[in-house]
Amino acid sequence: MRVGRALAGGLFIRLAALITLALLPLGMIAIYQTHSVIDEAARLSRVAILGRTERAALGERELLQHTKGAASALAAAILPLRDQTAACDAVMQAFLKGQANYSFAGFATANGDLVCSSKGVSGNIASAPFFQKALARETPVFGVGRSLNGDGGFELSLTIPVRDNDTLLGYLTLAIPNRLTSAFYTSSWESEGIRFATIDGDGVILSSSEPMAQAGLIMPQVPDRAELWALAGQTFFATSKSQEERFFAVSEIIPGQVAVVGSWPAEAAKMTTGAGGLAFTLAFPILMWLAGMAVGVFGLHRLVIRHLSALRIAMRRYALGEREQAQLELINPPREFAEAQQSFNRMVAILSKAEQRREIDLREKTVLLREIHHRVKNNLQLIASIMNMQARSARSEEARNVLAQLQRRVRGLAAIHRTLNTNPDVTTVDAAELITALAKEIGAMSLGANHPVAITTQLTSVQLNQDDAVNLSMLVAETLTNAVKYVSQSGDGQCVVAVVLDRLDDNDCRLEISNDLDPLDQQGREERKFSSGLGARLIRAFVAQLEGTDKTTETETRFTYEVIFPHRSGLVETATAEQKDTEDHADLRSTG
Predict the structure, then answer these.
(1) Is the pLDDT higher at 408 or at 581?
(2) Membrane spanning segments where (predicted)?
(3) CATH code, domain carrying 464
(4) Burial readout 530-551 (b: 16 or more C-beta within 10 A, e: otherwise)
(5) Residue 254 forms beta bridges with which residues?
(6) How many structural domains compose the chain?
(7) CATH (domain of 167)
(8) pLDDT band, very low/low/confident/very high, at 4 (cuts 50, 70, 90)
């Protein structure tokens, strides 16, 4: 749709529309004058093809008409002999000796029982298609079927009813070998690729210039074979059953009974019928229009379009970052475009210098920011090491636990700065990478316990801004420490804590930390409740800063903590740094 509107609004299209409007009257006159000539020429050509098709079937038409007369005469001859089989057979045999065009003659009752025949055989032909057709119509019908002589070939037959006054006595059948009907279509037709077939009123093929087994391939594809008869006297293009486009002509040769179908190669028929002649006839008005278009388009392109295209390409290259080839160089431009070229090159020079200065500033700030994260990480790790030394020298268990918890939280902050320092994008943190580092560190702390804890992770890469990354890391550190502390052995003797981070949709993320429980450890269940303690208050504060919601699910064998929070990958907008620090400190003080 956008491409169409863009083309419609272009100079080429508008110029073409104006030139077309100017030349339209002349073109309409030329088209009107040639239209009637083309139609008349096409009509005469189609009539000529139809006539050639009828002439090709002239020999077969004469044979079929002669067969109708011979059948009527033979029916009259055997009428008094129908009850005398031997005499009837003799008449049939004598008839065939004097008629070389027929291979079989026979008379059958209405039940299909052969009373007499030229072969002197008896039998029943009631199941033969041609006999059933004659029985249904009680009129002379042409049909095709296997030879009644038993040689397995196809024969064209004529079956007529035999009556004594108004009483139907039976049916007389004369058979014509297929070789005789196909002989009428000479090799000259075949060399031109023209094929013929005759059909009855039902569209059944009676004879063909092709072998009967292949005759159907030259016929047009129609839903119903009987539709071919309705096309008698017409010519048309259609796809044959052999999947070729051909030109067909249909004409009756025996009115109401037999029609011939001519199948012509599409190329030869198009030349004969003038198909494509319309394009040649319209060549002059089209060439006139093209000449006017060529002059207008050439002038427009030479003076305007090529310079606009060069300007557009230069602007696109500059927008895509190709600064080395951004200068515009027009070839022999008009004065207006020369001024536009000068202004564009001056603008590019100014913007390129400003952009280079910004890139230098950005690189310096990026290096400085990485150095800050590196130093903060080192300082936090140093503080954690001092806490570790202090914890080892502490005498009371309570003091050691407090220092261990502080050390763990400080190391969580150090992990964030380490991730920011190694991340190419210093403004965001990969939550999956951050949680993996925390899980390894907390898992390493549990190696000295009686039952080492295995921490499994199933994490989706989620980019978070620095503020959410800090809150999430502290939340994971607190909840994961609790899970490691209260995990129990599962049925296979292992202590497993599972951490899952995934995206619910484009707006929300889900964090889930779960651990196995011992159904008999009632004391541990009481200690696990987040109703009191600094850790529980910190967890609630971190969830609030993430603007998320949390819930716990506890069964006899499993404890699950789940947090759903909004995903904010960009920088969080705040009024001032001082206001944000005040809000964070207020959240933490509210836990006290």
Answers:
(1) 408
(2) 12-32, 278-305
(3) 3.30.565.10
(4) beeeebebbbbbbbebbebebe
(5) 258
(6) 3
(7) 3.30.450.20
(8) low
Q: Which residues pair with 51 in a beta bridge?
A: none
Q: Which pLDDT score, from 0 to 100, does residue 130 have?
A: 85
* C-alpha pair distances (Å), 29 with each of 23, 26, 36, 38, 284: 10, 5, 12, 15, 12
Q: Domain of 75? A: 58-141+152-175
The DSSP secondary-structure symbol of 304 reads I
Percent of the chain with pLDDT over 70: 84
pLDDT tens digits, 463-492: 888 888 888 888 988 888 888 888 887 666
pLDDT at position 152, please?
A: 59
| Neighbour-count burial of 125, counting CB atoms closer than 10 A to its CB (0-12 exposed, 13-18 middle, 19+ buried) | buried
211 located within any domain: no
319-341 exposure pattern, b = at least 16 Cβ within 10 A, e = fewer: eeeeeeebebebeebeeebeebb
Residue 257 has pLDDT above 80, yes or no: yes
Asked if 564 and 549 count as a contact pair (C-beta separation under 8 A), the reply is yes
CA atoms of 406 and 129, how far apart (whole Å): 103
Looking at the structure, do residues 477 and 579 belong to the same domain, yes or no? Answer: yes
Q: Which letter does DSSP use for residue 212 in this model? A: G
- In Å, the largest CA–CA distance within the chain is 143
- The packing angle between helices 466-486 and 397-422, to 10°, is 140
* The token pair that represents 90 in the structure block: 């003799």
Q: Is the pLDDT of residue 25 over 50?
A: yes
414 within domain boundaries: no
Same domain, 354 and 456: no
pLDDT for 24 beyond 90: no
Instruction: Say yes or no: 166 and 67 in one domain.
Output: yes
User: How many Å apart are CA 550 and CA 563, to the nearest integer?
Assistant: 4
Considering the domain boundaries, does residue 283 fall inside one?
no
pLDDT bucket at 569, cuts 50 / 70 / 90:
low
Q: Which of 310, 309, 333 is nearest to 12 (CA)?
A: 309
Please report the pLDDT score of residue 207 as a whole number.
Answer: 84
What distance in Å separates the CA atoms of residue 79 and residue 162, rounded to the nearest whole number?
8
